[in-house]
Amino acid sequence: MSDCSPPALSGRLDEAVIQFDIKQKKENDYLDFLDRPIPLYSNRLKTIIHKFAPKLFVKSVVLVDMERIKQDLYWLMILPRMNCLSEKSEFHKDGSLKRLVLDPEKIGRHTIFQVEGIREPYIIIDLRLAEALLRRDFFGIRLKKAEQAGRRMSHAHD
User: Fold this and answer.
1) What mean pLDDT is reported for the chain?
2) Which residues pair with 21 in a beta bridge?
3) Which of 58, 83, 127, 134 is the most interior residue, by most CB within 10 Å?
4) Helix (H, G, I), strand (E, B), or coil: what is residue 86?
5) If DSSP codes are grouped into helix, strand and coil, which group holds residue 23?
6) Collapsed DSSP state (helix, strand, coil) of residue 7
7) Tell me, what's the pLDDT at 128?
């Protein structure tokens, strides 16, 4: 079994050339955040996130539309996974998340991360980054407040 931890994964990705061919449609919408086949961030979005979290591993990915002879630059980011669930978090019987509650003591000063211990691929961002995103005209991003003792954070999803 291969090691897929963030440091090992980022080391292997650093060497790779990643390109995805775009499925042919009448018109393709290029959102700032794509969640499939893997989470990808537009160059504009990556620039803002990088200002708040400059140490994140990023890898360029090219989306290729062969029919229109067009290439678009996106970025794969390896986000840290934080074990930051509060014991107040609630789950359905099937293990899916019913109520997300974050423990601020476990989060520390992290600006952007994913939550360890849940199935859902939520990306948690701090309020400063959320406000910076809201001041710009991004497409494909929806922010929702996440419950946390003492303060509010936002989680982003498409």
Assistant:
1) 82
2) 64
3) 58
4) coil
5) coil
6) helix
7) 94
